[in-house]
Write a structure and sequence with these properties.
Number of helices of chain A: 3
Strand order of the largest sheet of chain A: 1-3-4-5-2
Structural class of chain A: alpha+beta
Distance between the termini of chain A: 28 Å
Oligomer: homotetramer
CATH topology of chain A: Thiol Ester Dehydrase, Chain A
Largest sheet of chain A: 5 strands, antiparallel
Number of domains of chain A: 1
Helix content of chain A: 10-25%
CATH class of chain A: Alpha Beta
Number of strands of chain A: 5
Largest interface: A-D, 21 and 21 residues
Radius of gyration of chain A: 16 Å
CATH superfamily of chain A: Hotdog Thioesterase
Order of helices and strands of chain A: EHHEEEEH
């Protein structure tokens, strides 16, 4: 996924504000899922939503106005309720800016945990490839 | 209403990003209404929401990190569906930074216009004072 | 310009938050200028920045999660210091969601007005076509 | 620190968007430092800025529109370049919504690490109290 940096992403320190990377991660997850045929909107209609349970991010180098970021997204682990995403964010010079881990869980509209539908879990498990399948 | 400027309000031009003033205006409207006994949350429970129909804002001088903004809010006009707010935003030195006008309308959950409940309209009309009551 | 709507664009009313349209307009202006060979970053290096002087926007219909917005951007007027942009925002069904006008001015790093460089002014004037050239 | 939740903090899932908690943490750190006599703006004038190096946050329960969050901030560790903050975020019912850890480092305007001024380090160390002083 490629993402251009706009004024609204930056702060008066001259670089991208630390919270805004989490918006880029949403974009990356969305693209990741939709490229694999998973529509968040479609799931919402079936009363399945995703909530973020835990986020971890390291900031190694800053991104600045006009940069084009590239985000590599991978699924590291899938359980009955939880999907763990890992990401690498690089700029147009391939400098590693940030690494991050998100734990996303499936919930109902009441925000209580709700088991991932089988086909969704399968879809993610298929992505794990040689990576350990923790289920 | 007083509002401190944080890093997240600013952009790499060193000043508050132009869209973020509209967030301050939401804070100002909310405070204005709640100080007059009008709970947005209470109205939501009665299936009445407010939507913004039109926004106009002039930027005369920039706000910077650490500034304390003061926002004066006034209701200028009330009709069956619409409330017109006007604001002046000043910094801690009383420099006028911005003036703005918001047209807010009452809608149902389907975002269709829905007449303002009588008591709500009355509450706003009482604020108009000597100002022309357009109803 | 096309722009997908993410969770972070929306609010708990279920639609795009009114301030966030101004971020889309920044994206649209940037794209407009860069497609015509004008790099904001290049200008910054020459100590020329753009500041927003005035913003006006009408919200006619809401955008929701997953929508793909299309923004048509036009320059309506160019003077020695000021460029007036007008926009139409539509969703994937071509429904008109919003119209907007931005007055952008050229400033130095001190945020004082600074005349538009001749070549920049020319570039915008060339876009006006049959539209009245106000200079 | 107390912080009201506005529309602009939430998303169409009906709850506060996960990235926005990081803005609240900025507010909490700022308040923490300023209450102890440390002005970020004053430090900026001496060419000392703070950058976030690492952020970790757990989301245990969602915050919704109208909630009043309370954030408890503590400094857990201080080294020559780094300050580690820990936080607890609760709502008006004292429900624990979130816990978080931030590693903040002192940098110059070039974003290279720059040793914390002695008086600043001392100020933070004095907060550690009986907690282990790691320096």
């Amino acid at each position: 996924m490629k993402r251009r940096i706009y004024y609204y992403d930056t702060d008066c320190g001259g670089v991208v504000y630390y919270a805004n990377y989490l918006k880029f991660l949403e974009e990356a997850r969305t693209k990741y899922m939709e490229e694999r045929g998973l529509s968040l909107k479609g799931l919402m209609d079936k009363n399945i939503m995703f909530a973020i349970r835990r986020q971890e991010i390291e900031y190694k180098a800053p991104a600045v106005y006009g940069d084009i970021l590239e985000i590599k997204t991978r699924v590291l682990e899938v359980t009955g309720f939880r999907i763990r995403f890992v990401y690498e964010i690089r700029n147009q010079k391939s400098t590693l800016l940030s690494t991050a881990v998100t734990d996303m869980v499936s919930v109902g509209k009441d925000f209580k945990l709700k088991e991932l539908p089988k086909e969704v879990r399968k879809l993610f498990l298929d992505q794990l490839g040689s990576v350990k399948k923790s289920i």
